[in-house]
Write a structure and sequence with these properties.
Two copies of one chain form a homodimer. Chain A is built from nine helices and five strands.
Chain lengths: ~190, ~190
């Protein structure tokens, strides 16, 4: 059981950030983030998430045309913007990732099952990504308000990698946090049978 | 920044469990799990995840015909099996969940965008669910090895709720844990631009 302070850090007091301090995010921090999130479980250990960390001004400028108006300024200002994506050909890695079942690669040959598996598990890993960022002391600002097709054409032209969501990373300025929205009560979202 | 022990609990030392002790999981524990996971961020606070906790023998028996052979015994033995699902009509809740933008409901009226948003964000919430379970001292055994269509016909016949994955919950017996599979290295999954 985690401490109350730790539960606050990753869930209860954590907020989506919109303003960022000038404190940079190092390579070592991005590696620490991935080194945590990668341990989260995926189906047949398929690990389809692929992450592009945009930190240079040149990389950010390639992203800008794909952003919705309300996400542009905060994303350009963030120390790092991650494109959380997934690999439709994730099964190529299964001989390494699931070595005790050499036939695992063939389980996902059907394209619809492959794409569904990549999206589901890539999104699960997106959840791990956000929590891992918070767990190591970063703030996160995830968003879906962008043009996936434009991002894919610019950053993943081969068609094999698909953007899922984007997530600003850095150290947030609490002044930019919006009032917290409510959540569904247990009985609105859950049933015990 | 979380302590090393906390990072171990939610990521580094956490394992998918396959054998369960007889220790039951109470209503209060299931409510504590939801009360954590619900704070994880979703797009426009859409919160599409819906969870059916199967704890009674009768409920478990309704699930059994949909399980793959290798998932049957461990799932019947688990104190609780959660069906993590999502609501295609999540937008109906937006006037409550995103009250400062009364028009938000209309953003998701296009069925493909609505279904994609539900699946992406319901899966993100699935990631929060697994981490929250571990954070409060439960062990988790998530799996995709079941027939989603059979589960939906049995538990969600209206067509509005779709099963995503299932997850056994309880207190795991370490004797049932498989050897850990490798993960992709940073440079195999990530790029810094």
């Amino acid at each position: 059981m985690l401490s109350d302070a730790a539960l606050d850090t990753i869930f209860r007091a954590a907020r989506t950030h919109n303003k960022w301090t000038a404190q940079p995010v190092s390579d070592a921090t991005l590696r620490a983030l991935y080194d945590l999130m990668r341990w989260g479980p995926t189906s047949a250990n398929c690990c389809p998430a692929r992450i592009l960390f945009l930190r240079s001004a040149a990389a950010k400028e390639r992203l800008a045309p794909a952003l919705s108006a309300n996400n542009l300024e905060k994303t350009m200002a963030a120390p790092v913007t991650a494109i959380v994506a997934y690999d439709l050909d994730f099964a190529e890695q299964l001989p390494k990732l699931f070595p005790h079942r050499p036939e695992a690669k063939s389980w996902f040959a059907e394209p619809t099952l492959g794409a569904t598996t990549a999206f589901r598990n890539g999104s699960l890993q997106g959840g791990y990504f956000i929590i891992a960022a918070r767990a190591i002391g970063l703030d996160a600002g995830p968003m879906s308000g962008f043009d996936n097709a434009k991002v894919d054409a610019e950053f993943f032209p081969g068609g094999r990698i698909k953007s899922n969501f984007i997530c600003n990373l850095g150290h947030g300025d609490p002044a930019g946090v919006f009032p917290r929205n409510p959540r569904l009560a247990f009985d609105e979202a859950c049933t015990i049978l």
